[in-house]
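seq:
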Amino acid sequence: MHFGEIALLTESKRTAEIISRNCSTIGEMSKSHFDEMCLMNTDLKRKLFNNMCIYQDRYKMWQKSQLKNISYFKKLSFESLEQITYKIQLEYLEEGQLLFKSGQVLDKLYILAEGSIETFVTINEEDETLDILRVPGCNVGANSILTDANMDFSARVGQDGTKVLTLNYDDLRTLEKTLPDLSEAIE
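struct:
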């Protein structure tokens, strides 16, 4: 049995832990040793990636279906969507928490998983609500993250317990360099 290979393959944080309930013998491999092993065995990364793709739980499939609601992710290959799902982070937010302010350049896109997001503009020091997003899968910033343009509205969390999936700018740009279909889709 092995674990942690997904984090090594996708250069992301591990999202699970394992607790031994009995006596165990455990080996550990550093990132540099993993990379060295992959250089010596050229099929290893491909085999591990193929095994990673076999694992499909409902949550992972839901994430991919939400990504497909974003225009530049719609026609991506199964393999590309797989790699993107491992870069997505789940964030737990509290009511009133500001996601971004008008005038800011976005550093991540947001996909609503649960709860609500309020978009608004401030006119004469009064907040005017533009929309309240309540449907899971609604996204904010999917197009804005591709540009250096300043946002022309603000967004904040509408209720406690709101959960959003986020993909940050740096991860998106790194993926763009390694996934040809993503690179083509966002040109």
